[in-house]
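Researcher: Let's do a round of design. I'm pasting the structure tokens now; please hold your answer until I've finished.
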């Protein structure tokens, strides 16, 4: 997590993750700072102090970023102040909550745009490189009054700034920045908290921006709508200690949306819980717990699945998926693994059914945000440089299997009685039908509440739902990643007695059943071949099913139509009039006319400085559609790399063609394929071998580096009423008329 930066000198007394920096310009990462207790050194009681009337943190001279702490010194018998501190990058000091906070929570300090780092970055004198201009550098200069100002300076031509020795130097003497060798790394801007840069393998950096309601935290864009969650380990009947700590943290560092507890919630003595059941006391925030892990605790839980035990305390039940109000998806399974399934034990069938519940109805399943299990996964410490000894050793292969299949961003467990934050790892893609992204998993083993060794038992997370994040954000590399500790083939064989074959084959077998909503491990019957009924085709002009009000113009062999639920108003389709499944089977006349439409659209889009992206998906379609989407000219840069990177994230490989006309030389007409033609003429393609994400091209185009329209990633969310479609088509007919070569 990087080095810990505290609000002031002293010891961190709250067992909660704190602000940290992972590199010089990584920016703020993690959680807001929590309560800090100071153990002051010997002080001069006669020394001057800043205004103090009580203990706490206070804003310095109306600054939005500088603050100091007041504490009562028993030796001096008066309040003393600490040295002036500065909030981490992009944060403001919240005087009401006495802590550093997100800009949107401190309205008196203005919005989060163009936050001058003169106020909140210079904590010590020094020189720092400018990410997008190698001739310039930032210099933090200390004034006579102790404050530090930031200035921008330029090296004398032709010198450039050398980050290593922080001096201007000849270009030949400056090594390539190691942090920008990989195109997957990002660095934040010093002056604008929404601005950051994508490293480009030694080439000039690519400038990107977070959405209006977000700031770049060094790893991804952090949004106002993120979920703020607390996680705790085994409570074991210490309810007062738990809720007292949670209440304190929620007041000073919240509000938090909810608390999740793993491990044993009940213990040997549960008398304190009677106060909560009677209503004399109340959990400060909604608290969700797992079910029992032993027979003696089973009678403390109702027989009903997912039930309220007392006000604000809920049992999640045996297994399932909980989705919070902001879209965070939490998969969970209660109990200890066993061959049989009962109230306090779960079996291989339970984990299979949990997996099916996560992917059912989601053809483009990316993964899960959080996985909660009482038990640690077997082998979790493998490949991790941190060496620990398990106290209880109640690990199981079943949670390991779930991690491989669900690829959670966070996996939280208890029972072992120790705190362990494993180095992040990425689980491999399990075959053609695995649509999950190759995202990082972080495992956390939490200790017992109030344990004598003072090991961390309470943890805070600030998460954006996985489904609302850009793929590039999810794929960002970390410097401390390790290899995946689990072997899917080995674990799958042990649990389900499958043959020791490749992971891809096994994945195909399981995923096919999951999407068919049948029992895990049961082969589905062979399907009969279905004859296509052309009269029901949505795109054949002779079909009564075609929505003719979407048609813009008709040629001799092809036609141009508005895309239903388009990304932008000018998102159009080129389709053949007669029924053809894909472009490889088009007659020569239709192919030539389609190329005429493409050239007309290039000119049409070019009138307002936009360029065309064309793509075709010959998969789960019965009638050929070439989709055309206009994008700004400036978005073309690195578009090829963006498509390739995001394809790799889904286990796909896009290859480059010399020209669109050569597709028939590498792909047969009856083979599913995807192809995209970029504005610079580059054509990419892939043969589809498995469960291809239907919205792949659309998700790339709506992403931040291209159109920055994430909310339009699903066409079903963008459908207009028929009247609005008719108005839009009429306008398109008028606007396209100067470029229309047809006689219609």
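Researcher: That's everything. Go ahead.
Model: Designed sequence:
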């Amino acid at each position: 997590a990087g080095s810990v930066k505290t609000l002031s000198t002293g010891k961190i007394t709250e067992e909660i993750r704190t602000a940290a920096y992972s590199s010089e310009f990584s920016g703020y990462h993690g959680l807001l700072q929590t309560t800090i207790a100071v153990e002051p050194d010997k002080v001069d009681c006669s020394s001057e102090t800043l205004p103090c009337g009580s203990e706490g943190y206070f804003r310095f001279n109306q600054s939005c970023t500088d603050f100091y702490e007041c504490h009562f010194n028993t030796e001096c018998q008066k309040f003393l102040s600490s040295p002036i501190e500065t909030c981490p990058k992009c944060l403001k000091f919240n005087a009401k909550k006495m802590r550093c906070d997100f800009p949107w929570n401190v309205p008196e300090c203005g919005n989060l745009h163009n936050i001058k780092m003169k106020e909140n970055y210079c904590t010590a004198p020094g020189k720092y490189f400018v990410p997008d201009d190698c001739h310039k550098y930032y210099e933090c200069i200390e004034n006579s009054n102790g404050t530090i100002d930031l200035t921008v300076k330029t090296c004398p031509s032709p010198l450039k700034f050398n980050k290593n020795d922080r001096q201007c130097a000849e270009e030949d003497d400056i090594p390539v920045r190691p942090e920008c060798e990989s195109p997957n790394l990002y660095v934040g801007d010093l002056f604008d908290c929404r601005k950051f840069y994508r490293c480009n393998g030694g080439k000039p950096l690519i400038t990107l921006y977070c959405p209006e309601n977000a700031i770049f935290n060094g790893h991804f864009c952090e949004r106002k709508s993120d979920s703020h969650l607390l996680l705790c380990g085994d409570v074991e009947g210490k309810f007062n200690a738990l809720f007292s700590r949670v209440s304190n943290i929620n007041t000073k560092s919240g509000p938090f949306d909810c608390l999740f507890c793993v491990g044993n919630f009940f213990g040997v003595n549960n008398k304190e819980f009677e106060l909560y059941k009677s209503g004399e006391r109340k959990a400060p925030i909604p608290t969700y717990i797992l079910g029992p892990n032993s027979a003696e605790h089973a009678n403390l839980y109702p027989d009903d699945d997912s039930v309220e035990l007392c006000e604000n305390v809920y049992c999640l039940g045996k297994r399932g998926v909980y989705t919070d109000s902001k879209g965070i998806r939490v998969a969970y399974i209660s109990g200890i693994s066993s061959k049989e399934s009962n109230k306090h034990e779960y079996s291989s069938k339970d984990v299979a059914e949990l997996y099916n519940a996560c992917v059912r109805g989601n053809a483009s399943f990316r993964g899960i945000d959080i996985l909660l299990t009482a038990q640690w996964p077997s082998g979790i410490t493998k490949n991790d440089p941190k060496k620990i000894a398990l106290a209880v050793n109640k690990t199981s292969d079943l949670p390991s299997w779930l991690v491989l299949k669900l690829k959670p961003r966070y996996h939280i467990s208890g029972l072992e009685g120790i705190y362990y934050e494993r180095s992040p790892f990425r689980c491999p893609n399990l075959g053609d039908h695995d649509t999950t992204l190759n995202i990082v998993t972080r495992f956390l083993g939490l200790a017992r509440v109030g344990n004598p060794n003072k090991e961390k038992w309470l943890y805070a997370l600030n998460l954006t739902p996985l489904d609302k994040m850009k793929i590039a954000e999810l794929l960002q590399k970390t410097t401390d990643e390790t290899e995946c500790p689990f072997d899917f083939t080995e674990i799958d064989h042990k649990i389900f007695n499958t043959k020791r074959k490749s992971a891809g084959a096994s994945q195909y077998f399981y995923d096919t059943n999951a999407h068919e909503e049948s029992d895990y491990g049961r082969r589905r019957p062979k399907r009969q071949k279905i004859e296509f009924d052309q009269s029901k085709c949505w795109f054949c002009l002779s079909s009564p099913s075609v929505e003719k009000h979407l048609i813009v113009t008709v040629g001799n062999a092809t036609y141009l139509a508005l895309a239903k639920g388009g990304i932008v108003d000018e998102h159009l389709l080129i389709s053949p009039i007669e029924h053809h499944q894909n472009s490889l089977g088009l007659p020569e006349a239709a192919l030539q006319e389609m190329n005429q439409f493409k050239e007309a659209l290039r000119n049409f889009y070019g009138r307002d400085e936009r360029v065309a992206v064309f793509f075709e998906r010959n998969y789960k379609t019965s009638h050929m559609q070439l989709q055309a989407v206009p994008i700004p000219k400036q978005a073309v840069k690195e578009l090829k790399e963006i498509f390739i990177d995001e394809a790799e994230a889904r286990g796909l490989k896009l290859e480059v063609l010399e020209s669109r006309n050569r597709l028939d030389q590498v792909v047969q007409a009856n083979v599913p394929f995807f192809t995209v033609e970029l504005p610079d003429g580059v054509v990419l393609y892939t043969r589809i071998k498995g469960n291809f994400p239907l919205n792949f091209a659309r998700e790339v185009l709506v992403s931040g580096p291209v159109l920055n329209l994430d909310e339009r990633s699903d066409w079903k969310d963008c459908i207009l009423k028929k009247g609005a479609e008719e108005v839009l088509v009429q306008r398109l007919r008028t606007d396209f008329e100067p470029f229309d070569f047809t006689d219609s």
